[in-house]
Amino acid sequence: MPVRTMLLLCFAPFVIGALHGCGGDDGGGSTSGDSPLGECPPDATAQEEAGYQALQDQCVPCHLSTSVGASRINAPEDVNVDDPASVSAEAEAIFSEIQIGGANGADGMPIGVKLSDDTIEAIRVFLACDAAK
Hints:
There is one protein chain. This protein is mainly alpha-helical. Helix content is 49%, strand content 0%. It contains 5 helices and no strands. Helix 2 crosses helix 5 and helix 4 packs antiparallel against helix 5.
């Protein structure tokens, strides 16, 4: 077998692999995949309402814009669930805290109660849909 043919056979996989990565975006990606909130599902009105209500029931005691000092129980001053702009701006951080906080109290909210998976999902949908508006 000629040397040229052997070299071609040896380097062909590397050339093909390198070219396969060229050409930019293949259209399969999604910017919303980068967000922990995911996408707003279609026809999610009932779940959005449940998520909004869960935020009001579970989060307002500490994350109310009129709460100050000790009544906030160390909640950040700029995260208030009664302020739509604050919720939209902090949606990903709110969701992250809801996921990790709760049961252990060490990383975030000292509420001592882990929210149910359904409640967490409803809040995720509310935040994803609200942030998309």
